[in-house]
TrEMBL record:
One of its GO terms (biological process) is folic acid biosynthetic process. Pathway: Cofactor biosynthesis; tetrahydrofolate biosynthesis; 2-amino-4-hydroxy-6-hydroxymethyl-7,8-dihydropteridine diphosphate from 7,8-dihydroneopterin triphosphate: step 4/4. GO terms for molecular function: 2-amino-4-hydroxy-6-hydroxymethyldihydropteridine diphosphokinase activity; ATP binding; kinase activity. This is 2-amino-4-hydroxy-6-hydroxymethyldihydropteridine pyrophosphokinase. It comes from Luteimonas yindakuii. It comes from the Bacteria. Transmembrane segments: none annotated. Pfam families: HPPK (PF01288). Its EC number is 2.7.6.3.
Amino acid sequence: MSAPSDCDRSPGCEAAIGLGANLGDPVATLRSAFDALAALPGTRLLAASPLYRSAAWGRQDQPPFVNAVARLHTRLEPDVLLEALLRIEAGHGRVRADDPALRWGPRLLDLDLLLYGARRIDTPGLRVPHPHLHERAFALRPLLDVWPDAAIPGLGPARDLLPGVDEAGVVRLDDGDDRSDRRL
């Protein structure tokens, strides 16, 4: 169920999308995914974080990931935004497996809805804030690059949570991207 938030009082909402890939050409894939996010209807890409390399999380028997975060302003409702993210993943060759043994396995592209304003959502297939966001330096670090005052509903400011996670192995690859501030 979602609670009232700042999104309910204005046209649209700010959202954070986590991007990750470790198969194919992850850097090119993430840059293409930023473009696809910017092209979503009723959506503006406010900022694209620098890219980071990190060890795999959950299952370590796979190549390192390249991760980033996109900050969006969108008029899409959370479930519609999630459907759009899944279409972008599929367009980049991602096939989601139902097998739990493959969870957190290698992938061509992974897009996660990390935050949707201050909303808390818990429905089948969608939990916001992302349930592991506060545990993952590879998501918190780029989130803070694009949204320094981000707050994780129920947990507090993201900047206060980062010191509690291990940042070892999260390495910045570049100085960002020029795909920000795309118009609605």
